[in-house]
Each structure stands twice: as C-alpha cells, then as structure tokens.
Amino acid sequence: MVKKSRNFWESLGFAGDGILYSLRTQRNMRIHGLFTLGVLLAALYFHISTTELLILLLTILMVVTLEMINTAVETVVDMYTEEYLLLAKVAKNVAAGAVLLASFGAVIIGAIIFGPKVWALF
Ligand SMILES: Nc1ncnc2c1ncn2[C@@H]1O[C@H](COP(=O)(O)OP(=O)(O)OP(=O)(O)O)[C@@H](O)[C@H]1O
C-alpha cells in the first residue's frame, strides 16, 4: 500500500529524499552543483552586489528546480512504459528543453554579471 505522509516533518523528509535521489542518480545535478560552487566562489572573489547575488541565486535555483522536475517527468514516463511512444518522447523532450532553456539563460546572466569584472582584470 502507498505510504501517505502524516505530518509536515514527514513530508519534509520525503522532499529531502527527492533532493538526495536527484543528486545521487543525475549526473547533471552534480554538474549544476559544481557550477554553483564555482559561481559562489567567483561571487566572493569579485565582491558582487546584493542584487547580483540574488539574481545568481534565483538563476541557480531555477536550473536545479527544473532539473528535478525533468527527473520526475522521466521517472513517471519510464514507470508508465518501456515501449517507444511518441507522447513519452514529447514529454521527456519538453522537460529536457525547459532545463536547456534555463541553462542558456543562466550562462547569459553569468556572462552579464561576471563578464565585465573578468574583463577588468586584464
Ligand atoms: N519511452 C520512450 N518513447 C519514446 N522516446 C523516448 C522514450 N524514452 C526516452 N525517449 C527519448 O530518448 C531521450 C532520452 O531519454 P532518457 O530517458 O534517456 O533521458 P536522458 O536524456 O538520459 O535524461 P537525463 O540525461 O537527464 O537523465 C528522450 O528525450 C526522448 O526523446
């Protein structure tokens, strides 16, 4: 029988399990983690403003959150079928496309914030 969460803390635990599962099984999540570390170190080094830091944090959260939703979509599709289905392909491609869009956006935002600061070093 399916286990239902009984209280807030139990729900929080299930959500935490979801984050750990994504980190353990998804190579892209670990890559996002490395990027996040690099961005935070660069933020410290360049003494970016609070506004810039907030924009970077929101951008990182957007990419990581979409990556997790992508993982959830992939898992549901794989649970539903192992056959080749056009709708399964559409669902996975759209979810992957959302991650790609967000990642492009993150690269552009990173370039706008850090580009001039790196340029000024030379
Ligand atoms: N059941 C299916 N029916 C049709 N096409 C599928 C199916 N499963 C996967 N695909 C196609 O193969 C692609 C890769 O699917 P897969 O499940 O391997 O995800 P992935 O790209 O490995 O994701 P990630 O790297 O984020 O784990 C999908 O984007 C989709 O185009």
Span between termini: 63 Å
Ligands: adenosine-5'-triphosphate
* CATH second-level architecture: Orthogonal Bundle
> What percent of residues are in strands?
under 5%
Structural class: mainly alpha
What name does the CATH topology carry? Helix Hairpins
Please tell me the overall pLDDT.
95
Q: Fraction of residues in helices? A: over 70%
Task: Describe, in plain words, how this protein is organized in 3D.
It is a single chain. The chain has 122 residues and is an all-alpha fold. It has one domain (9-120): Helix Hairpins. Helix content is 85%, strand content 0%. The protein has helices at 8-25, 27-46, 50-80, 86-120. The radius of gyration is 18 Å and the shape is globular. The protein starts with 7 loop residues before the first helix and ends with a helix.
Summarize the structure.
This is Diacylglycerol kinase. The protein has 122 residues and is mainly α.
Q: What is the strand and helix layout of this fold?
A:
Layout lengths: L7 H18 L1 H20 L3 H31 L5 H35 L2
Bound molecules: adenosine-5'-triphosphate.
The site of adenosine-5'-triphosphate has 11 residues, from helix 3 and helix 4.
